[in-house]
Design brief:
With 151 residues, the protein is an all-alpha fold. It has one domain. Strands 1-2 form a two-stranded antiparallel ribbon. Strand 1 and strand 2 form a beta hairpin. It is globular and about 40 Å long. It starts with 7 loop residues before the first helix and ends with a helix.
């Protein structure tokens, strides 16, 4: 069972791990720089809270729900060097401190809203999710990329 991102203790643990990142931190695997990794992690929250990413059309949503959803929302950790959706590919350099602050704010907002806010909430790509599925999606993505940078 994955840790509960809606629990303040777990949130604080994740925030402490993020605080250990530095601009010069190198990944243990993969190609992303630390600033791009933070921006990449922010995309999940942008999709959950904002309307800046174009939603997939009905056919693509069906395909994502059938072929990708379970991998994203289950409790199985991501493999190193897994492929990512195009919306999550960060090409430009980003401001490390700004992306770090944004990610921390999103994580705190998620924890403060709590699991009940996410129960039955529509996701950008997968339709309605349970709070457990939201937790798994958020927590394992963060854990994967923080582990990528050795924190």
């Amino acid at each position: 069972m994955l840790k509960n991102i809606f629990d303040k203790t777990v949130t604080d643990e994740i925030l402490n791990r993020i605080d250990k990142l530095t601009f010069s931190k190198q990944p243990l695997w993969g190609k992303m720089s630390v600033d791009k990794m933070l921006a990449h992690c922010n995309v999940s929250y942008e999709m959950a809270f904002g309307n800046i990413h174009q939603k997939p059309n009905a056919l693509m949503r069906f395909i994502l729900k059938m072929m990708v959803k379970n991998t994203v929302v289950n409790e199985v950790p991501y493999k190193k060097n897994s492929s990512t959706a195009p919306a999550f590919v960060i090409k430009d350099e980003k401001n490390f401190e700004a992306e770090k602050a944004r990610l921390k704010a999103y994580i705190i907002k998620t924890q403060e809203l709590g699991a009940t806010h996410f129960e039955g909430k529509e996701s950008h790509s997968f339709g309605t999710l349970t709070s457990t599925e939201w937790n798994n999606m958020f927590y394992k993505h963060l854990d994967h990329h923080l582990g990528q940078f050795g924190v």
